[in-house]
Design a protein that fits this description.
The protein is of the alpha/beta class and 336 residues long. It has helices spanning 12-21, 31-42, 71-81, 84-87, 90-100, 129-142, 160-171, 186-196, 205-208, 230-236, 328-335, and strands spanning 4-5, 26-28, 52-53, 56-57, 110-114, 124-128, 150-154, 175-179, 200-203, 220-224, 242-249, 254-262, 274-278, 282-285, 294-300, 309-317, 323-326. The chain folds into 2 domains: 4-114, no CATH class; 130-335, Rossmann fold (3-Layer(aba) Sandwich), CATH 3.40.50. The chain starts with a strand and ends with a helix. 36% of the residues are buried.
Amino acid sequence: MVPNFIDIRLAPKQIVALVRTTEVPVVLLPERVLKNTLTNILALDVPPSQRQVHNFDISVDKLNNFFGWKPSQQWDFLEVLGLKDLIMNEAYFSSILKDSEKDSSGNRSMVGIFSSGTTSTPKCIWNRVDRLVKNGQYSADAFEVKASDTLLLMALPWHVAGLTWAFMAEEAQAEYEFLITRSGEEKKWLANIQSYNPSYLCTVPSALSKLYGQAWEVDRVVYGGQPMLEEDYALLSNHCHWTYQGYGQTEAGGLISVHKRWSKQSLSPGESQCQGIPIEGVDIRCEGVEQDPSAIYIRSSTASVEGFYNSGDQGYLNHQGLLYLIPRVAQKNMIG
């Protein structure tokens, strides 16, 4: 079975709906992955004659046509780029497909999502859609989202964080809007917050940092995807009452742990590294201590793999069971 590609040029809610209702394997392929791969290939000075495949050439100009091609053309293109095997690792894909068909309905609802690639090169992680939806339900409970809430999601719907937040809102039956954050459109971000006036703003610290000092306020901010700088906590406190720091991974099907804090409270020593307590369905093992962090192992009921897997992160659990994470940039500095 060959998966279909979801056109990420569609409106965010359309992308979410297509993932949630699919009955066949689908892939969410970020344009960034295609563009970076193309750029790397073109930098190798390959003769133009070797860039011809089935009447289309490998060039950055052709990137905008990818989602308009027939499936056979898309896969031909990806094979030349070396991305076909990355997406369709036969043993891996077959095992996930077999797992998705265990029930009597022969369900093949599964999606391939690209990880951020912060520990290695970007990779396509396959998981069952029902597990992603389940993680959204757990996330709604962990972030305390209710049907009466309104959420503004400033994120990318083809990443696991954006999908998790969308499924979270839908599972809680809460109203939500989705805004893709593009560089240079900060005024649009601000206008959406001001006009929609959500009770929850869900985004990443890099987007929040562009909004400090502007005229906006929400009750709760949910953020994840990267660590928050210590100096940002004081700035963010002027815009919200509560913050929820979420730690999640594509492999885990979304959210793993949450740290909730009153935004007006002073940051305690080391708190910027706190990722909070595991959500429902998640077990975390880590033998590290504050002075000597070690590998974090995760087992999630919504993960793409069974049992514990190495998260690629380093950290420790304190005596209260709170997870503390050493940022990957800091890890590289420690190794160097």
